[in-house]
């Protein structure tokens, strides 16, 4: 049975010199997913990691690898990440010439598919493709760098996305996750969940602490208070 809430530590904030060990440690600490941030220095102003690193981490990851592609163009790299062990691949509509086709490519490659919305990207895309999505990811910071502060207006967007997702699930019977990425911490995770999120990406809030298990447990304690 899928847990009500899932915590997805972002390895963007991990110690890259010990990445395999970091992944094993954070999974042992209670991670439900491993969030894998891919940046290309074109779509976003940063350069991170690619399929080779995903493939190298696969033996260390006993939970699904959640790949977030912040790259443009996006289609070229999708099959490489599917082959490298991604379970879920999310992308930004601005990075695709044909959003519907990219979703199809991700699913044909054997992964679940998600669409990512930047703080200033409207949710209008969901009117056209929500029935083909497995996940909607709301960015609560502008993508590009870890350690940023949560943008409060994102809560309204999460609520709006929740309504659209609930309507789609009622109509089709298909599960769709609502993930939030950016500035998620112990002191705001409950409010984010109350707005409608069920999957939480946390980078520095977990990897910046000495005890990953205690941090994840504290997050779960906050989530347990959601009505």
Give a description of the structure.
There is one protein chain. The chain has 227 residues and is an alpha/beta fold. The protein has a single domain, classed as Aldolase class I (TIM Barrel, Alpha-Beta Barrel). The chain contains nine helices and eight strands. Strands 1-8-7-6-5-4-3-2 form an eight-stranded parallel β-sheet. Helix 3 links the parallel strand 3 and strand 4. The longest helix has 19 residues, at 154-172. The model has no long low-confidence stretch (mean pLDDT 96).
Which key features would you list for this structure?
single chain; 227 residues; alpha/beta; TIM Barrel; 8-stranded parallel sheet; 8 strands
What is the strand and helix layout of this fold?
Elements: E1 6-9, H1 19-28, E2 34-39, H2 51-57, E3 65-70, H3 78-84, E4 88-91, H4 99-108, E5 112-117, H5 126-129, E6 135-139, H6 154-172, E7 177-181, H7 189-195, E8 199-202, H8 204-207, H9 212-223
Parallel strand pairs: 1-8, 2-3, 3-4, 4-5, 5-6, 6-7, 7-8
Helix pairs in contact: 2-3
């Amino acid at each position: 049975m899928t847990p009500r809430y899932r915590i997805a530590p972002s390895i963007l904030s991990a110690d890259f010199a010990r990445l395999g060990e970091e992944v094993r440690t954070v999974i042992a600490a209670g991670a439900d997913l491993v969030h894998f941030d891919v940046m290309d220095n074109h779509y976003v102003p940063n350069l991170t990691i690619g399929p080779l690193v995903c493939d190298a981490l696969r033996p260390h990851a006993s939970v699904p690898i959640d790949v977030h592609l912040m790259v443009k163009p996006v289609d070229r790299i999708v099959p490489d990440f599917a082959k490298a062990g991604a379970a879920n691949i999310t992308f930004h509509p601005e990075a695709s010439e044909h959003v519907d086709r990219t979703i199809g490519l991700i699913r044909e490659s054997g992964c679940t598919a998600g669409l990512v919305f930047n703080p200033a990207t409207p949710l209008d895309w969901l009117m056209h493709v929500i029935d083909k999505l497995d996940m909607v990811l709301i960015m609560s910071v502008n993508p590009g760098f870890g350690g940023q502060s949560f943008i409060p207006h994102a809560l309204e967007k999460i609520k709006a996305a929740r309504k659209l997702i609930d309507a789609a699930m009622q109509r089709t019977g298909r599960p769709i996750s609502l993930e939030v990425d950016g500035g998620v911490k112990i002191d705001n995770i409950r409010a984010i969940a109350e707005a409608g999120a069920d999957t939480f990406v946390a980078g520095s809030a977990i990897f910046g602490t000495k005890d990953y298990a205690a941090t994840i447990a504290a997050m779960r304690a906050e989530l347990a208070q959601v009505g």
